[in-house]
Design a protein that fits this description.
Structural class of chain A: alpha/beta
Helix content of chain A: 10-25%
Number of helices of chain A: 5
Strand content of chain A: 25-35%
Radius of gyration of chain A: 28 Å
Oligomer: homotrimer
Largest sheet of chain A: 11 strands, mixed
Number of strands of chain A: 39
Distance between the termini of chain A: 93 Å
């Protein structure tokens, strides 16, 4: 793993080193670890106040901290506006640098009618179909499959075992992880009177805008018409399902095993927890947060948090979950009330006569 | 994309053109789109009455409509019994025609003891193991894997990155999408007294009957004994799990991320929404509908709809979901009732003396 | 399928044949099937008392039974301590013996700087990256991908379409099924003030200890730092997600479509039903049982069973599920109580004057 000095870390993170003026910037760091685990060779970060104790006790060689943190701790500090963001930017220094030859290697199966830009790498046993285009600096790993008329933007990476079916368009700086399938057939069938399924040919395509990442074994269906779209910078974790004609805005983050049904329209900056399911044809507003395992049967307004199956406002869902614990007992209490009330009524009745 | 005339559409859809006798049949269409989106170059369809406004305003070049629709709209109409079915049949006209060379291409890894029928295509970098059989007109894409003794029926298609393990039998006109795995090991283990798992070898196989489709990255386990079976014409979406010894009837449709546990016996024509889970060894009757995210712990009678986890009759499940919204408040109301009742009782008690 | 005598079965299962002294041990068996299905050519087993009727009526050629079973049934019996375990051990006799050439085959893409031990098999179209090591007797199937610095222990098997990314370490006697991805990027991003996701490079790796099995299309993420770990002998079914920095103990069993979020610490011998989801950073104690579709938001004590979303003790969850059926009615009953009580109060009030 590459090594970096505290000065390099500060530069990458956009921060200021402390103590200033000394040789703090020359401290050499070999990796990254949380406060409780980091040793003198590690960079760490302290953003969330609940880790204060870990911070005070940490043996980290340097720590990225909030700009206004008050502390007497004798460690190299790197002060930034947002420690987690600073850490993300500094961590790149420790990541192994992938080197690719920037050419089509022998054993790659590139169709003569495909165009591979200068500086792009196509590894052996990768398949690139006719009329496909690979942008500058893109990397197609061994055993990746690109069908016909696939377009891969500059610097995008397609990992092994991924399949990009005919006509799929991938923007720049995208990452298609191992086993992901883009442009799978949409799931559309009409039924005969006898109940047989007649396939509705899915004539559309898929567009991933710039900076999109798809996790391992994630599936994105081609559109019935037009294109299934995943907006700029959106990130999908592993084993996610995106059905035909979904239109997802930029900067969304979908955790693993989420399922997005057909024609869902999702705004920008939405966060979906693991195993969330969205019904088809609904709209999800900008910056919506949906808790793990929620099931969303109908459209959701943006800028709010939801939870549960069916999904409700986060606060109501939590109150229901707490209330459910009391439900078995509540039934008994109501039964008791009914008996006591009946007794009172019986007592009251004769008096009324 | 291929183009088609309204007359060709009418023929494919089994419908009648209106206005008759003119040149309506010669209108040329270039694609398919919903009413609200379609332009003069597009075919559209109008089946569900709730889209009446969209229909009246639609700019579509031609619209497939119910045979008895009353309308003054001046568009080319194609009258059919079932517009969605008609649309499915007409859409084929606009789908690109896949052309395959119908032979084993150089670079395909076909075992000498495999048999490939006339007119079948095996692409480069596809693997076909010993004693496997590929039927007439079948297509094995690059990077698809077929183990030993795999049988592929006529006209079936195996997409890239799919894996058909030893002994798997695929019927005619099947589609195995990218990344699907058929014949994975069933998940069967016995436990030693110390808690270690001892694998139970899964000696059976998998049979997909004619017309079955498996979505991207779907997994079907081989049977413990005999064969896991998926019935004729059943369609499975992406990322579905079918465990060992499942016996699924014909014409079922399973949406994405459904999980069917071991030895489930499912009837014909069942519809399962996304992320549904079925417990092992249960029976699901014919034409059962199961709503998305339902969890089914025990057998279900057919010809009914179910919802929820645990799954209940659709109507009860919906009533419960509505009731849950009132649950937190209900607890307060019961507490209030208890206090008020206690007060009344206290009042009543002395009077009784 | 290989055949075996009852004597061979008894030896493999660690049991005693009955009737003793005769030629019972020479009965030849050709397969394995449950009691109700088995014919005279099949071995069966009888462990669970609820199958007593099936046992009495079974036509099986031989049956593995509990050591102390009392029966007059005239069949070849093989008495063992644990019939299911005995069956698992005997079933191996009927499993086809996979024969591998034990060498690197022509057409395999093995980097010159990779080391392949004696007796290991690397099939054609498998990819093995630089500095990777394949242990003795290991098998790398066609179309499997191993990146750089991957280590595969002795006798481990990597099936087709699997991807083991750079630096992943697989122990001995492991099975990586088709389409599984080990060492996928962890899902870690920091957000800019504008809401864009900045990737946090995942610098760690994955360690699968000895005897681990991963199902088809299962994904295991590399760690953010250090290593994601799956403990010795743990078995993961198909389509399971294991996020970065999960630390799973030995002998766990995770059914299909389970999702384990980042940094979960799981003890030994846990059983998770299908589609269970675990929130990040929680701890799950030893021998925890979690029912299918449960959602676990917080840490769980071991040696107990849980169910539901959110997960509760199994007993409470079941009581809640039963109570929910009465919830719609309960609301009506409370409304009735309120009216009756109000009437009583109204009656009582004037009397009090």
């Amino acid at each position: 793993m590459p090594r970096a000095t505290a000065a390099q870390v500060a530069k990458a993170a956009g921060g200021i080193i402390e103590p200033a003026g000394g040789d703090a910037g020359e401290v050499i760091l070999g990796g990254l670890a949380p406060l409780a685990v980091a040793g003198p060779d590690d960079l760490s970060w302290f953003g969330d106040k609940k880790y204060r104790t870990d911070f005070e006790a940490s043996r980290a060689g340097a720590v990225i901290v909030p700009r206004d943190l008050e502390t007497d701790k004798e460690t190299v500090l790197i002060r930034v506006d947002n420690p987690e963001l600073g850490m993300a930017r500094a961590a790149v220094l420790f990541a192994p640098v992938a080197e690719h030859p920037g050419t089509v290697l022998e054993g790659a199966l590139v169709h003569p009618a495909a165009r591979v830009a200068e500086g792009a790498t196509v590894y052996p046993l990768a398949v690139v179909g006719p009329d496909s285009e690979i942008g500058e600096g893109a990397v197609i790993y061994p055993l990746a499959y690109l069908g016909a008329r696939v377009k891969i933007g500059a610097r995008s990476v397609v990992q092994p075992q991924a399949a990009l079916m005919d006509g799929v368009r991938i923007g720049e700086d995208c990452l298609i992880q191992a086993g992901a399938v883009v442009g799978a057939e949409g799931f559309g069938f009409a039924q005969t009177p006898e109940g047989a399924h007649v396939k509705i040919p899915q004539l559309g395509s898929v567009t991933l805008e710039d900076g999109v990442e798809l996790g391992a074994n994630t599936a994105v269906d081609r559109a019935f018409y037009g294109a299934t779209r995943i907006g700029r910078g959106s990130k999908l974790d592993n084993l996610v399902q995106v059905a035909h004609n979904v239109d997802m805005g930029p900067d969304c983050a979908l955790a693993a095993q989420v399922g997005v049904s057909g024609s869902v329209k999702m705004g920008r900056g939405c966060f979906l927890g693991g195993q969330v399911g969205l019904a088809d044809h609904i709209t999800v507003g900008d910056r919506t947060l949906i808790g793990a395992q929620s099931g969303v049967p109908s459209s959701l307004e943006g800028h709010q948090a939801y939870l549960g199956s069916p999904a409700r406002s986060f606060r109501l869902a939590q109150r229901i979950m707490v209330s459910e614990n009391k439900l078995p007992d509540l039934i008994k209490r109501v039964r008791t009330l009914e008996k006591r009330l009946a007794a009172l009524e019986a007592e009251a009745a004769p008096k009324g006569e």
